[in-house]
Amino acid sequence: MFDAIGFERDVSNGTTRVETALAIVMGDLTEGVPLLRIHSQCFTGEVLGSLRCDCRDQLEMAMQAIAEEGRGLVIYEYQEGRGIGLMAKLEAYELQDAGLDTVEANHALGFKADCRDFSLPAAILRDLGIKRVRLLSNNPRKASALAENGIEVVARAQLRSCAESALVGVSAGQEGKMGHALSLRRDNTASDNRTADFAWRACGIEAQL
After folding, report:
1. Is residue 157 part of a domain?
2. Which residues are catalytic?
């Protein structure tokens, strides 16, 4: 069982608004170095099952890993489409249908490749008394953002999931242009490249910390 803790803060960048996030928590986070997943909302993937991303797989793998260890948290942020919002994300989908990758589509709409700000997760961690984490993420920007905000990332684990064929081209763009560490494989062969003592399996593919 996980507990959900809601956080919000006022943000002023020309207009005043409230930024919200959930900390989905299991176990005592003050002992040792907890597992952490910073996850951005993906309505199209998590609710509609879009084949353009593996967000739902990554969320489920992270929660499974935390559950198996009995301690850790997911910080769930409402930053659809890497921060561009749901409507713009649908426009980006249309551009992807025309042959652009995710980064090119964002640029064509006037956005950066990634518009997210990860300072709120760092603030949540400080509020919970967490200074060191093991990060479950393919995105090196998350690790850098935490470090810049005073949270030490002692290890970063890649989340490797099965991918439909429609996802391969999209993810290749992310890997090459955004520095994401991805391992998309079409078979069910587990990796033998063991880098530490923590591992879990999803779709027969091993992701390790």
Report:
1. yes
2. 114, 116
**Residues in the chain, total:** 209
**pLDDT tens per residue, range 24-39:** 999 999 888 999 999 9
Identify the pLDDT of residue 105. 85
Q: Are 156 and 135 contacting, i.e. CB atoms less than 8 angstroms apart?
A: yes
Structure tokens at 75: 């910080």
Q: How confident is the model at residue 16 (pLDDT cuts 50, 70, 90)?
A: low
- Number of structural domains (the chain) is 1
- Which tens digit of pLDDT belongs to each residue from 74-123? 999 988 878 777 888 888 888 988 988 888 988 888 877 776 788 899 99
CATH code for position 19: 3.40.50.10990
Determine, yes or no, domain membership for 190.
yes
- How far is the C-alpha of 45 from the C-alpha of 90, rounded, in Å? 12
Contact 128, 23 (CB under 8 A): yes
Helices 119-127 and 140-148: crossing angle in degrees, nearest 10, is: 60
- Predicted TM-score (pTM) of this structure: 0.74
- Domain range holding 145? 3-79+116-208
State CA 91 to chain mean position distance: 22
Pick left, alpha or beta for residue 6 (phi over 0 → left; psi -120 to 50 → alpha; otherwise beta): beta
Domain presence at residue 95: no
φ, ψ for residue 57, nearest 5 deg: -60, -45
Please name the residues in contact with 192: beta carbons below 8 A apart, sequence gap of 6 or more.
none
